[in-house]
Each structure stands twice: as structure tokens, then as C-alpha cells.
Amino acid sequence: MKTVLITGASSGIGKAFAELFAKKHYRIVLASRNEEKLNRISRQLREAYGVSTVSIPVDLAQNAGPVQLYEQLKEQGITIDILINNAGMGSYGLLHQQDVHSELEMLQLNVHSLSHLMMLFLPDMVEHGSGSILNVGSTTSFYACPLSANYSASKAFVLSLTEAVANELQGTGVSVTALCPGATETEFFRSARMEGQKVADPKALMSPQAVAAIGYKAMMNNKTFVVPGFQNWLLTQAPRFFPRKFVTRITRSVLEQKL
């Protein structure tokens, strides 16, 4: 039985991935700092699909989180075949007005923990000659995003890291893929205090289930990255055809628009 580890599994895209893998009869390891939600989702997956589940409450926004997660799995003798690096958070506003502690927590989660988990799990995968990692980026992985400066920079890191490591892993039997969705129907906009922005309009959001399905297919086909949705893909191409400063101005104007 293959085992998948999903971080940020208590809601949104992470929860959608958990349901997708449960339908395919994987053993599911769920990791998130919300223990109550994790236990509820774990129970639902067992009852609905008859799969084995493991819940590990861990705060990956803290420096010690990745090692705690890795060591708990080692202690339980659990080998990870697929890592879904989904845990992440966003922010909204002018950088000089942001809470420094919150911004650093976001960078810890989006950048440091994601990379740290890859470095912890990749050696085992390479040794076994098989495995897959999917890192959740964003359409903002492709361009600077004023009013979400640290967030977009963190997602650019995710894409760059994924592309580099995908090249390094050629011939090992291990693959890494970046899933770069646009606006998705998750708790992201609420936690980033963006519920009043036009970009958060429910009518324009993709479902997390659709995003997870596209990511799964790309990962299984060993793609280096995938952008769900044709309109989202067009957005990511803008820096190829327009001056970067122009794209940055447009991005800011879109984020400033109210519902």
C-alpha cells in the first residue's frame, strides 16, 4: 500500500487531495496545526473510503515543524511515497504596514518548511528509486504581486526550486511538480484578509477539487509544473509579452479592485 503525506490537509486544496487519494486507496497521512479538523477529516475518510489514515498535528510555520513531522513518521515506521507540500498562507497590504511576525511566519511556512520537507524526504525516495513530490505554488509564481509582495515572492521561490530539483532528479525515478493555481475556493482569502477584493469573487474561483485533480494528473505524468485553467495560464504568460513594470502595475490594480 502506497502512502501519501499531505500538509495543510485540514481544508481547501489539501483536503481535496486527501479525498482524491482516499478514492485511490492510498494510506493517507494528514498534517496540519488544526488537530480538531485533522481528526474529523481522518474519520470521514476512513468511514467513506475504508482507507488507513494517520493524523499528525504540527505547526509548520515554526522552525522545528518539519523535523518534528519527519521524526514522528520515522518513529511509526511510515515510509512516504508521495509528498503533497500544500501548507501555505498569504497576506495582503503594503509591506511596510505588515505585522513583521506574521510575515516571517508566512515565509517560514511557504519557503523554509516546504524546502526543508523536500530535503528530509527526498533522500529516502532517491534511495528507493521512486517517489513524487508536488509543491503548491501559485499563478503569482510567475510575476511580482504588489500588496502581496512576500507571498508572491515566496511562490516564485516554490516554482524556481521545483524546476531546479526536477532537473537534478532526472534518472532517479523521483519526480517533483509545481501546481500553480489561480484564485481557488479555499480559506486563503479570509486568512489573508482579502475577502472584499474582486479577485476573491466566488463566481470566479476554481474549486479545490478541480485544482487537486489537475495537480494529481500532472504529477503522475512527471510534469515540472502545471497551471490549472486556461485564463490562469494566460495570466502567467503576461511577463513574456509585456514589460515587467507594466505587468506589476496591472497586478496591483487588480488586487485593489473591490467587490
Describe this structure in words.
This protein has one domain (3-256): Rossmann fold (3-Layer(aba) Sandwich). 50% of the residues lie in helices and 13% in strands. The chain has helices at 12-23, 35-49, 65-75, 100-128, 149-168, 188-191, 208-220, 230-241, 244-256, and strands at residues 3-7, 27-32, 53-57, 82-85, 131-136, 174-179, 225-226. It has a seven-stranded parallel β-sheet with strand order 3-2-1-4-5-6-7, sandwiched between helices.
Topology:
Blueprint: E1 3-7, H1 12-23, E2 27-32, H2 35-49, E3 53-57, H3 65-75, E4 82-85, H4 100-128, E5 131-136, H5 149-168, E6 174-179, H6 188-191, H7 208-220, E7 225-226, H8 230-241, H9 244-256
Parallel strand pairs: 1-2, 1-4, 2-3, 4-5, 5-6, 6-7
Helix pairs in contact: 1-2, 1-7, 3-4, 4-5
Key structural traits:
Rossmann fold; seven-stranded parallel beta sheet; globular; alpha/beta; 7 strands; 13% strand; 259 residues
Gross CATH architecture:
3-Layer(aba) Sandwich
Q: Span between N and C termini?
A: 47 Å
How many discrete structural domains? 1
Regarding CATH, which class? Alpha Beta
Strand order of the largest sheet: 3-2-1-4-5-6-7
Biggest sheet character:
7 strands, parallel
Q: How many strands in all? A: 7
Q: What is the molecular shape?
A: globular
Helix content, binned percent: 40-55%
Provide the gyration radius in Å.
Answer: 18 Å
Give the CATH H-level superfamily: NAD(P)-binding Rossmann-like Domain
Q: Any idea of the CATH topology?
A: Rossmann fold
Order of helices and strands: EHEHEHEHEHEHHEHH
Strand portion: 5-15%
Low-confidence stretches: none
Can you count the helices? 9
The helix/strand class is alpha/beta
The pLDDT mean sits at 92
